[in-house]
Amino acid sequence: MLAGLSGAMGADAQKQYDALKADGDFHRGQDGRWWGMVKTQKAWDLPVTTPCTQNPGIVWVPTGRPPAGILAVTPEMLSKLAYGATKLPPPTVKLSPAADKQTVNLPTYITFDRPLQPVSVTASLTYSGVNIAASTLAVPVSLRIDAGTNYASPASCTYNFAKSGSGYQVDSSGADCNITYQRSSRGGTYPLTAQVTWKVTWTPSSNPYGAPANPLPNGLTGGTPQDVVVKEIQTIVTG
Fold this sequence. Notes:
alpha+beta; Immunoglobulin-like; two-stranded antiparallel ribbon
């Protein structure tokens, strides 16, 4: 167990054991806890995380009197755990006309079958009467649509989400930007893609809607491309 916590083996593990036993016989009968450093890739490889300088191994921490150099757990640390565990859903947009019924020179309207819901995650620590928590909240703020071809004008549009019930919705039918294909897909398809930008914040509590709302890096989610079939309608004008 000692070797497993410290990463030491053989003579190094024996040396650690001897040093810990000499320190008050493992602090037998004293008020405190043994602590070991644990790093997880999700929590510590994030770009917003301060590098960990804690030495590996186990250390004795007296109750209420942490020794110098021991990194105390803070809500900000827990916010990084919550951020790393936040899973955002990929967007699936609804097209009008449908993906297999697109027509040259007709605008493509975008919406969702149902509003996108905010995503929240709480990380908490409760130990020896101490309660610490942090919560993240991700809210969709914008949607970018790319036509998948240069034979469209415009070839991309960006829309802001609007509050809709408990979630957020985009409906481009009244927008001044809607993708319009100008050339048929000629028996093939165009890969239309959608990408959602999420605004992410964290609060130092178990309430993701609490205050203060501290910023975290935005989240981005992209859906699977939709194969769009674009056809031409031939019109005969007679005088």
